[in-house]
Specification:
With about 290 residues, the protein is of the alpha/beta class. It folds into two domains: about 1-105, Nucleotidyltransferase, domain 5; about 120-265, Nucleotidyltransferase, domain 5 (2-Layer Sandwich). It has nine helices and twelve strands. Helix 1 runs parallel beside helix 2 and helix 3 packs across helix 9. The longest helix is centred in the last third of the chain and has 21 residues, at about 205-225. Bound molecules: zinc ion.
């Protein structure tokens, strides 16, 4: 069975075709430009696959996920002005005429990690997935269902206590300045230090400051949702940073509630190269085709 995946990021689109065993058969990536050009490229890619049965879209947000809303499938109030109030699902669905699932990039990534944990037989019934990259976001899957209320979660825009050595940094979120995203997203390296993230050595204290914030986010998830795992993906993440996060988490938690061993509880994605959303999409496309 041929299934499609669209991973729509603020800087690039990744389109892939795979099967129900989550094997990717073909994949392309191209930069995100204006909606018309980008969606046309997307549609053209999928039109070559005549046997494509279903597709899932994982989009940067915010997006409208309520099916009874007239703007279902739209990207809504994004800071990327060209994409504001853009109908994403509509044109793709009209062109390809197959069942489609529509969600956020982090929801699909959370779902991909959830499905993978089932394949690994890890018996995980719940997890939270964070991406820490150009932006910060998160999604949660509980008992096979993506958590969703009147809108999708906006886990990147929660508030954290300031690190005593970081009181002067204003933060980069255009809405809140010093929310989680405003303090730990990739571009904060440039904003704090004048150099980009990959060039900042791990000895730099900024990593400890950021670990303190990400650990607080993990504490919030632990206390509010009690998930079995919290997974951290995205361009800023690496194993050494995660070790710092676990250390801060342990101090902040102070043995208050039981959590699994920290190297299992707070972990990197099982799926390499930030491929969690693509795999999640294939699983969601399979699901929507059966539904
Ligand atoms: Zn914010």
């Amino acid at each position: 069975m041929l299934l499609g995946s669209i991973e729509a990021g603020g800087t690039k689109f990744v389109c892939a075709v795979g099967n129900e065993d989550y094997r990717i058969l073909q994949k392309i990536r191209f930069p995100t430009t204006d909606p018309q050009t980008t969606l046309k490229k997307t549609i053209t890619f999928f039109q070559q696959f005549k046997d494509l049965e279903a597709l899932s879209i994982a989009s940067f947000g915010p997006v409208e996920l309520k099916k009874n809303n007239s703007h279902f499938g739209y990207i809504t109030d994004t800071p990327k002005t060209k994409w504001r109030q853009t109908d994403f699902l509509g044109p793709v669905k009209r062109a390809l005429k197959i069942p489609m699932y529509f969600t956020t990039d982090v929801n699909a990534a959370a779902y991909g990690e959830y499905v993978t944990s089932q394949l690994y037989n890890e018996k995980i019934d719940s997890l939270v997935y964070y991406t820490i990259g150009t932006g910060v976001g998160g999604g949660a899957v509980f008992n096979g269902k993506i958590l969703q209320g009147i809108g999708h979660p906006e886990m990147g825009h929660t508030f954290v206590k300031r690190h005593p050595d970081d009181t002067h940094f204003v933060g980069i979120c255009p809405y809140h300045h010093d929310c989680l995203e405003g303090l730990v997203a990739g571009p904060t390296f440039e904003a704090r230090l004048g150099i980009s993230g990959p060039q900042v050595p791990l000895e730099n204290h900024v990593w400890d400051i950021m670990a303190y914030y990400v650990a607080q986010a993990a504490i919030q998830q632990t206390m509010i949702l009690r998930p079995a795992n919290i997974v951290f993906g995205g361009g800023v993440m690496n194993e050494n940073f995660l070790i710092k996060i676990r250390k801060q988490f342990k101090l902040l938690l102070n043995d208050y509630v039981h959590v699994p061993r920290l190297d299992e509880y707070l972990r990197m994605p099982r799926i390499q190269d930030n491929g969690s959303a693509t795999l999640g999409n294939l699983a969601l496309a399979y699901w929507v085709n059966q539904a």
